[in-house]
Amino acid sequence: MIGSLQIAAVGMEAQQLMIDVLANNLANVDTPGFKRVRADFQDLLYRTVRQPGAPAPQGTVVPTGLVVGTGVRVAGTDRLFTQGSVERTGNPLDVAIQGDGFFQVALPDGSVGYTRDGSFRLTGQGQLVTVDGYLVQPGITIPQNATAVTIGADGTVSVQVAGQTAPQQVGQLQLVRFPNPAGLAAIGQNLFVATQASGAPIAGTPGQQGIGTLQQGFLEQSNVSLVEELVALIKAERSYEAMSKVVTVSDAMLGMANTMKAAP
Known about the structure:
The chain is an alpha+beta fold.
């Protein structure tokens, strides 16, 4: 009975963490480029009373054995980089990635961050930046006298300048991909940084080397499905409720054991 209390306790902790993960997914349902996170569960060690295949007193072999589990734990959280829906915004500085790849931005500490959020802005000097002011890499500057900006599917950035008929190319957006994008570390602000688990970034031109293409005037939305997350939330709540019931029953059984008296 003491074992059941411990098993129920770790089960409740696991479901609480599951609810935390689901709550974060739901909170970011409208975050551009957000990728939902899934909690991965794993059973704990087993207490072995009798090994399967152990010899029995009758000279036979035990077919199944006797083992008792000790609960569950969350082994990790897996970020799912499936494609989110692409919605038209009409803003020429909004760029959606169709397929694999990340934009590169320069972080204040000199390192490079990676994002799927293509809602870009311009500084007073015409530099292309994220909504938090981080410079897009490689750097692109839009001339002050530009009347229109065009971003091609291959990342080519061109502008129309007053007094000129032909467009003028001012830069090239690059994308990077990773051998294991699930190994990227999320640091907030729609940004990721590379880790040993993600592997080194592989830079390339959009549409080449397995990298996705770009769509100007569109934004990739979160890949969170409200229906799926709410169903998972109900399931986690019911599991938590069941574990709390185990605690109640185990406590009642212990109470009965404590009040038992020896027969006269």
